[in-house]
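Fold these two proteins, one after the other.
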Amino acid sequence: MSVNTLDVGHEKTTATQQVNAAKSLEQRMLGVMAAFAVSWGLLCLIGFTINQIATPTELARSYSPEQIVYLQNTPAWVMFGKAMTTIGTLCGAVYLLLRKKSAYHWFSISLVGTLMIMADSVLRDGFHVLGGIGTGVSLGMIIVAVFLFWASYSAFYEGQLED
């Protein structure tokens, strides 16, 4: 056996180790992202639940009369969009944590729900009525929804998720 043969074998071993290390890092980052997604999904669930059970008296503590009227006149299709966002995010996060391909589909549902909510905000001038904090939350929702959709899409097509 020559020295060249040994060097080639060593190079193959090093390359294999580097590929395995990169895959390990990808799996760890996917786990971190999944943990973030679960936290975000739980936050969405809490926010959705609080909005559904809040009484006008409780709303008056946090919102102006104009904002309360805006919130109480939310159309049913927007409430459906909020439910889609909440359920899609939470289910997608759990499936991402379990490394299942269906995470991508759940995050797709969540993104559609988020876009429905944003369409309502544009159509009913919600960004103006709710003010800066409401606008910031809405923009944050869009950013997170797009990020989770993109990340699950990438993991789906890179083969990091199982059936």
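Now the second one:
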Amino acid sequence: MSNDSVQDFSVAVNNFVQTLGTLAQQSFELLNIAVKTVGQIIEPLVKTGCDLVCQAPTKVASVPPVTSVFQGSSVSTPKK
């Protein structure tokens, strides 16, 4: 009888350890999927932000200064 109980305990411990291993593996996979998902969500935002920052100097440089806008116009002063 004691041999059967030792064998039953061994099977129970083995099943428990397998269950813990499966839970740890699934938790790791879930964390891995969550990190990938967050990365896929953040990637377009970072790319758009970088594009805006990289294009800002060229956009600002293409705007003519205020003085050059008025150079071609003739501003008449009111006559007294």
